[in-house]
Amino acid sequence: MSLSALAPSAPDARPVAELSAQMTQQRAELAELIRRHAPADGSFQTVIKSLFMVRHDRPSQSVPGLVQPALCIMAQGRKDVTLGGELYTYDPLNYLVLSVALPISGKVIYATPEEPHLALRLEIDPVEINALIAEAGPMSVPTRHSGRGMYVERIDSQLLDAVIRLIRLLDTPKDIPMLAPLINREILYRLLRGSEGHRLYEIAISNCQTHRVTQAIKWLNDHFQEPLRIEDLAKEVNLSVSTLHHRFKSVTAMSPLQYQKQLRLQEARRLMLADGLEASAAGYRVGYESASQFSREYSRLFGAPPLRDLARLRSTV
Fold it and tell me: In this protein, which residues make up the domain named HTH araC/xylS-type (predicted)?
């Protein structure tokens, strides 16, 4: 399913060349800042703990991973992100927001050493959104039926300006403790005021169903190794079983059981790659009782059985 079928904020088809003069200048500065703070291929956490700089010097294969709530902005390049079989594309014209933790796959479409993919990721804390809403009061956040916990929206010069000011603080570390929280709040404010801001708004409002889905997601992240009974999870977040299924799939594009399966398989992959566990041990560690079922589901998600997948991953490092 295409993004345009999911939300009114489908990416603008206009080329980067049609950016305004101001935004062209801002994008050039953003690219230079990211290039400077990400001097090599990879993801780099900055001294502003929630801010990461990302650089890729070559296109990448589709890489599954669990991504926490975040704002992703690209200064150069193009990336495809898949959620439950749905494709989202973002580029310098459009930013990507994850309002909840989601198991997604990301693929860098174009990058070379001379013209690398340059992006940033700013993690979003729902607690900060809650505090901002409580302090600011009514902000005329658009209210409409909530959709996926991930969306793409057209970027504007005000958001770019705030992000650039946040990155500039890396050159004056003494200013970070005082100014970084203020700029971060401004960024959250501008996201809330965007046309899809209700998706962030709802994760912080305790009496709405979307917030309860975020509680279910958090519970699954904390207990993914355990057997899952949907009735117990629904009771945990104070929703009926049918409502939990409907709202959970609306936000994540998958059922709670499918979500749990992705968490298990990604953690098993990490255990094998980082800790050297054998496939059977990793599968057991994340909650699988059958080695054959683990291998079968692992192959379905990652495109190869565990041993072959790990060999492929290690050959690219």
Answer: 214-312
Residues 88, 171 within the same domain: yes
What is the DSSP annotation of 51-74? Answer: EEEEEESS----EEEEE-SEEEEE
Q: Where are the beta strands (DSSP E) in 91-240?
A: 94-98, 102-108, 117-123, 150-154
pTM of the model: 0.86
Same domain for 103 and 162: yes
Report the Cα 310 to chain-centroid distance in Å: 24
Which one-letter DSSP state was computed for residue 277?
Answer: -
Same domain, 263 and 238: yes
| Burial environment of residue 282 by CB neighbours within 10 A (0 to 12, 13 to 18, 19 or more) | buried
What CATH code is carried by the domain that includes residue 44? 2.60.120.10
Whether 170 and 116 have beta carbons less than 8 Å apart is answered as no
Looking at residues 249-262, what average pLDDT do you find?
A: 94
Average pLDDT over residues 241-264: 94
Instruction: Looking at the structure, tell me whether residues 43 and 187 fall in a common domain.
Output: yes
On whether both 127 and 139 belong to a single domain, the answer is: yes
Question: What DSSP state is assigned to residue 148?
Answer: -
Across all residues in the chain, what is the average pLDDT?
88
Please spell the DSSP secondary structure of 216-262, one letter per residue.
HHHHHHHHTTS---HHHHHHHTT--HHHHHHHHHHHHSS-HHHHHHH
Range of the domain at 142: 3-203
CB 246 within 8 A of CB 261: no
Q: Could you tell me if 179 and 258 lie in one domain?
A: no
**pLDDT (tens digit, 9 = 90+) per residue, 140-179?**
555 555 578 999 999 999 999 999 999 999 999 999 999 9
Which of the residue ranges 106-120, 161-175, 302-316 would you say has the lowest mean pLDDT? 302-316
Query: CA–CA separation, 98 vs 234, rounded Å?
Result: 23
Q: Verify that 196 and 290 share a domain, yes or no.
A: no
- When divided into structural domains, the chain yields a total of 2
Identify whether the C-beta of residue 151 lies closer than 8 Å to the C-beta of residue 9. Answer: yes
180, 203, 226: which is the final residue of a domain?
203
